[in-house]
Design brief:
The structure is a single chain. By secondary structure, this protein is α/β, with parallel strands linked by helices. It folds into two domains: 2-176, 3-Layer(aba) Sandwich (Rossmann fold), CATH 3.40.50; 190-320, 3-Layer(aba) Sandwich (Rossmann fold), CATH 3.40.50. 47% of the residues lie in helices and 14% in strands. The strands form two sheets. A five-stranded parallel beta sheet has the order 2-1-3-4-5, with helices on both faces. It has a five-stranded parallel beta sheet with strand order 7-6-8-9-10, sandwiched between helices. α13 links the parallel β8 and β9. The longest helix is centred in the C-terminal third of the chain and has 19 residues, at 302-320. The radius of gyration is 19 Å and the shape is globular. The model has no long low-confidence stretch (mean pLDDT 93).
Length: 338
């Protein structure tokens, strides 16, 4: 898992080296007005879809919804998606419900796209457009580099899709992202390992683009360390979930740059006052931070650097808890659902 996570920078570099497919797709998307975009994914891939949705809605203005696959597969709903945009995220591209859903959407007239790490997979064949992740074979059961590759490819697509002209600052930042990932992989998160080595349950909190990495971090804590970690938006945690937070309750709060940062820092302060064990991950200019986060050349990419740092910590935490992150219990590399 650790080796795969550290290889993510090469996938990002490969994507930046040849963006011709993404540019062509973005031009096709911009040819007509889209009323909605649909994402189709599960697990880590669905968390990547969450990042894409947040970025696309904020920069393109097209509403993005996650489509429950059972709507298309088990219920065979008459989906009215002609002319709309549907994008699937997957590492293996083999899950039958994913393939069937995209096949159904394509037949219904949607413009279908696969972001998949296996270019010869059934999912790639089912879609009109294919965007390879270029991450190479992922041998770890817990996906890491393919997740980061999905985030960077999402950012690239949104940057080229923007009109009246593409987002050059975001594209320039993507070209520099491999170096930022290398920096991120060497940040010291040993305090997180010390705080979580005996944890049984916890919250992972983010908001905006950072919610996608909170979701992914919570899943990895479950998969590799057996911690019952649940992800929440900082706005949502102030409702019902707040009741669970008491003395020494562990919270990992991601607060990268962006309009959501101030509220996340306030939440951290409020929870510390309550007695919770707060791990606030933030850039160096946030005095209250307990865990460092690297900054990239664009705030929209900071969450990608943050999850890189988290992956290295998660591998070390699993070892500290006496678990094997490379062989999580009861999990398979490819999960085929129907």
């Amino acid at each position: 898992m650790l080796d795969e996570a550290l290889a993510a920078r090469h996938a990002v570099a490969a994507q930046c080296a040849d963006s011709s497919r993404v540019e062509a797709l973005a031009a096709s998307l911009a040819e007509k007005s889209r009323h909605v975009a649909l994402t189709v994914a599960r697990g880590s891939s669905d968390h990547a879809a969450s990042y894409f949705a947040s970025l696309a809605m904020s920069r393109i203005g097209v509403p993005v919804a996650s489509l429950p696959m059972s709507i298309a597969t088990l219920q065979a709903a008459p989906l009215r998606v002609a002319g709309e945009f549907a994008i699937a995220f997957s590492q293996s591209g083999k899950s039958p419900d994913l393939v069937e859903t995209m096949t159904t959407l394509r037949r219904a007239g949607a413009l279908t796209v696969s972001c998949v790490n296996a270019p010869d997979s059934p999912l790639a064949s089912a879609c009109e457009w294919q965007l390879p992740l270029l991450a190479g074979p992922e041998r770890s059961v817990a996906a890491t580099k393919s997740y980061i590759a999905m985030l960077s490819l999402s950012a690239q697509l949104v940057a080229f899709w923007q009109r009246p002209e593409r987002d050059e600052p975001l594209l320039e930042a993507l070209r520099a992202l491999p170096d930022a990932l290398d920096e991120s992989a060497h940040l010291d998160w040993s305090r997180a390992i010390e705080a979580l080595v005996g944890a049984e349950r916890m919250f992972v909190i983010g908001r905006g683009l950072g919610l996608a990495i909170a979701q992914e971090a919570a899943l990895k804590l479950k998969e590799t360390s057996g911690i019952q970690a649940e992800a929440f938006s900082s706005a949502e945690v102030r409702h019902g979930p707040m009741e669970l937070i008491d003395e020494n309750y562990p919270l990992l709060i991601f607060a990268p740059r962006g309009p959501e940062q101030a509220g996340l820092v306030r939440l951290a302060a409020d929870m510390r006052a309550r007695g919770a064990r707060v791990l606030l991950a933030a850039p160096g200019d946030v005095a209250e931070a307990t865990l460092p986060l690297a900054t990239t050349r664009h705030p929209a990419l900071d969450p990608i650097a943050a999850i890189q740092t988290f992956y290295v910590m998660a591998a070390g935490l699993a070892v500290a808890r006496g678990r094997d992150a490379d062989q999580p219990r009861y999990l398979n590399k490819i999960t085929e659902t129907h």
